[in-house]
Amino acid sequence: MAEDYTPRQSRQSASGLQKSQEADVPQSFSVSQTAEQAQMQKAAGVVCHNCGTMNDVDSQYCLSCGSPLHGIVCPNCGSDLDADADFCEVCHHYIRRDVCSFCGSAISDSDGYCPQCGSPRGGIVCPTCHTLNDFSFCKQCGQPLTEEARQLQQKVREMPEFIALEALALDYNELQMELPFDSERDRRRDEMSRQLRERVLKLLAEDEGIEYPVIPQPERTRMTKEELEDRKRRRIEQLSEMLDRMAIPQSSSPAKVRNYAMAQKPMGVRLAWLCNYKNALHSSPCGCAKPQLGGKWVVLGHNSGQEVKDDK
Fold first, then answer.
1. Bridge-partner residues for 55, per DSSP?
2. Measured between alpha carbons, how far is 299 from 176 in angstroms, rounded to an integer?
3. What does 33-56 look like in DSSP terms, one character per residue?
4. Residue 156 has what pLDDT?
5. Is the separation of the CB atoms in 139 and 148 below 8 Å?
């Protein structure tokens, strides 16, 4: 019995030692592989979306500008957002608690009003169309809602480029209300009306003792449908060229970009905001998550079929 016991015990010990050695090999290899991967990831780093600084891969905020480096989740609807987004395009809510949406100044989580511009955190109701807004200009009607916005709009409207832009927009809006000739009979009736007008004005002038009266011509004359459409097309081209020349100043503050873009929006013409973030058409920069990346106003016209995101 003793002779059988000793070899069996030795075999069991040897078997256990072999299993232990086999278990040690993949464990040490796994640790080495993990360390190597960690070093590779650390060497790669994370580039800041805001300023382009390279940061360590485990950094949560940029060492240079303090911006968050990784994606965030919308606190209202749970949608995934970019780290530098301040607005959720899914549920249409402003999400930053540390930055005033109206002026872009720092604000603490406990502040009910911005210490810089005095705007309320919960938004401002437009006195014109009664829309609740998170930004300095009404996203629905374009009305400035803060004193800073009113001053900015006045400054922009005094610029020669905006004066020319507004004149073009007014002319285009008047063209939209023009009624073209529908037929040759319609044209003849219009000519008869014009002649009757001149005769009446001439008789009235003669009654006042004016022997050779100068009859003023109407500011606008009716056109054919083709002529009217061609004139509207040329006005749209001129408006687009003028808007392209009125570039939005570059800024890292989404609030300042939104405010300037809204201040230079002319009345009387249907526009959309083409953002550089997703190359999408918004009804205004108030519906873009990252307007600081830039964008421009584009003319849609009243009958455009281009799709605009519904920025509620």
1. 46
2. 14
3. HHHHHHHHHHHH-EE-TTT--EE-
4. 95
5. no
117 vs 106: CA distance, rounded Å = 11
56: which DSSP letter?
-
3-state secondary structure of 295: strand
Torsion-angle region of 306 (φ positive above 0: left; ψ -120 to 50: alpha; else: beta): beta
Contact assessment for residue 152 and residue 135, using Cβ atoms and an 8 Å cutoff: no
Which stretches does DSSP call E strand in 86-233? 87-88, 93-94, 124-125, 132-133
pLDDT band for 311, please (50, 70, 90 cuts).
Answer: low
If one counts every other C-beta atom within 10 angstroms of the C-beta of residue 102, the result is 29
Residues 6+ apart with CB under 8 A from 175: 228, 231, 232, 235
Q: What is the pLDDT of residues 62-102, one digit of tens each?
A: 888 777 777 788 999 999 999 889 999 999 999 999 999 99
Distance CA 26, CA 47 (A): 34
Tokens 């003028």 correspond to: 242
Beta-strand ranges (E) seen in 20-90 are 46-47, 54-55, 72-73, 80-81, 87-88
> Is the alpha carbon torsion for 267, 269, 270, 275 positive or negative?
negative
Dmax over CA atoms of the chain, in Å, equals: 152
Q: Considering the entire predicted model, what is its pTM?
A: 0.69
The residue with greater pLDDT, 193 or 91, is 91
Q: Which residue has the tokens 């009664």?
A: 130
Q: Is the per-residue pLDDT at 251 higher than 50?
A: yes
- Going from the C-alpha of 196 to that of each of 139, 199, 202, 231, 264, the distances in angstroms are 48, 5, 10, 28, 44
Sign of the C-alpha dihedral, residues 274, 275, 279, 281? negative
